[in-house]
Amino acid sequence: MIGDERDKEALSALMDGEAQELELRRLLSAIASDAALRERWRRQQQVSELLQNRDIQRPDIDVSKRVAASLSHRSTLSRNPLWSMAVAASVTFAVVMGGQMLIPSAERPVSPLISDIGGAVVPVMGAQPVQASLGAKPLPVTNRQAEEASSAARQVGAAYERLARDRYLSLNGQHADAAALIHPAPYVLSLHTDIGAPAKDQDSQ
Amino acid sequence: MSESMTQWARYCLALLVGVMAESASAVECDFTSPAERALEKMFSHKDVSFAGTVLFERAGNRQFITVSWPDAEGQGAMRRMNASVNPPIERWPSPVKSPERICDVLRMYSPALGAERVVAGRLTQQLSLRPKDPLRLAHRFDLDAETGMALAMATAGTDGQVLERFEYAHIQFGDIATETAFERPDETYSRGRAVIPGFFLMSEDPVNGVFVVSDGLATASIFVEPLLAGAPPGEGAVIEGATLTYTRGVTGGEGRLLISVLGEIPVVTARMLADAVRTPGVAD
Questions:
Q1: CB-based contact (8 Å) between B106 and chain A?
Q2: In CATH, what class is B34-181?
Q3: I want to staple A152 with a disulfide (CB 3.0 to 4.6 A). Which of A19, A28, A93, B269 is the partner?
Q4: B228 and A184 in contact by Cβ < 8 A?
Q5: CATH architecture under which domain B3-24+190-276 falls
Q6: How far is CA B78 from CA B66, B68, B84, B172, in A?
Q7: Phi and psi dihedrals of B8, rounded to 5?
Q8: How far apart are CA A176 and CA A76, in angstroms?
């Protein structure tokens, strides 16, 4: 709760241009992982835009039903081998999770173990170390399920990363054409599509 | 294209024109400080013709290219000198020139002048553009003291690490290019509605699911397409130099969409842009 209030205050400071660097860095970290905070920021900006009398009638990128209908009629760009991996991962994931609600992998917390008080290694003279149960045995099945779910989530995440790499190769030319009108050195953007070294995974930025 | 799609495209075009006409406004800022004037000069450099050689580095790769501007049609030309023997000439467009655009940049970035240094045998002064929020990357330019053109540029991530850079090894400036010297293409800075803080729609094609947003300096393209049946929701991202590619699969009662965001932006910005895509069921 205290953290929420702090985030709200930091957002307000940011909107007023009064946020300090350290606070900005902390806010960046919070916003990256908090969809609600991102949404709050967006709405706060809309209010600010409104107060400054700028146009915000439809601030969203609208993909209405009619648009979706037209999308469904054209051949999807995503028909490539990468999706077979994504689909395979989804089947694995569905089996492991047993119908639980799926959420984006990066936002899905690692499932906690039911019991992690599985005991400790107790040295006994003249014997090999054994594991004491302390009356509460770990639940190996649950642990395995959690590990498999985590593994499946990682597979889905990896599939989307491969998909992102595929999208970079197939769509960056189109993006570069649009961005060239804005970039101070448009010719640089043309080079982006030519340098074909494998893209690095995006861990953090 | 079917009749319904044609009608939908017309509807979207009319809406876009209407929105953008409303958003057009007079210049909202003054260029008073030396840093602001340097920024203005940088965006106006295209009035001077030039030819030179550029070294470009990103993600462990480097390339030399020859660059010149303008040709008879007002476009730029370039050749990739490490790509092949006798590389072909490629064209690149002139960037838009708009005081309003500079105002947008100043709204989201803090300019500051830095040290002088020599680049390609010419005196330059450093101009840094530091983002005012975490939705943008930082940029550092070395501007030619005479023309204001960027002879070197580096883009850094939110952690300060340089993602990509270029620098002229040699450049020769020519005459002032006048309006009558060539057929200038119809370039306009069309700022549409705000989507996320500081980013405005530059163009939208809902029928094909392609949207372009910009803050006046950084650009992001959003591609929306159907998510293949059976694919789970999720997200992933890769970065190549300063260009981030972010994908998100959305499923559920609101539809099944694959959203791809490409741009010279941080991950948090790509996530916010994906958040801004209204899915079927919510829109109508």
A1: no
A2: mainly beta
A3: A93
A4: no
A5: 2-Layer Sandwich (3.30)
A6: 5, 6, 13, 15
A7: -65, -40
A8: 21
What CA–CA distance (Å, rounded) separates A111 from A104?
Answer: 14
Does A80 lie at the interface with B, CB-CB under 8 angstroms? Answer: no
Tell me the chain A residues in contact with residue B247 when contact means C-beta distances shorter than 8 Å.
160, 163-164, 167
Task: Identify the three-state secondary structure at position B183.
Answer: coil
Q: Give contacts of B246 with chain A, Cβ < 8 Å.
A: 164, 202
Q: What is the DSSP letter of B186?
A: -
Out of B65, B220, B232, whose CB is closest to A156?
Answer: B232
The answer to whether A60 contacts chain B (CB < 8 Å) is yes
Query: How much is the CA Rg of chain B, to the nearest whole Å?
Result: 21
**pTM for this structure?**
0.68
- Report how far residue B63's alpha carbon sits from residue B148's, in angstroms, rounded to the nearest whole number: 24
Question: What HEC string does A129-168 produce?
Answer: CEECCCCCCCCHHHHHHHHHHHHHHHHHHHHHHHHHHHHH
The answer to whether the CB of B31 falls within 8 A of the CB of B102 is: yes
Q: For chain B, which residues make up each domain, given as ranges?
A: 3-24+190-276, 34-181
Write out the DSSP string of A12-72: HHHHTT---HHHHHHHHHHHHH-HHHHHHHHHHHHHHHHHTT---SS-SEE--HHHHHHHH
Contact between A41 and B214 using a beta-carbon 8 Å cutoff: no
Whether B210 contacts B87, CB under 8 Å: no
Which residue did the predictor score with more confidence, A95 or A28? A28
ipTM exceeding the 0.85 mark:
no
pLDDT band at A40 (very low <50, low <70, confident <90, very high): confident
Contacts of B224 in chain A (CB under 8 A): 61, 63, 67, 71
Q: Which two tokens stand for residue B141?
A: 């330019």
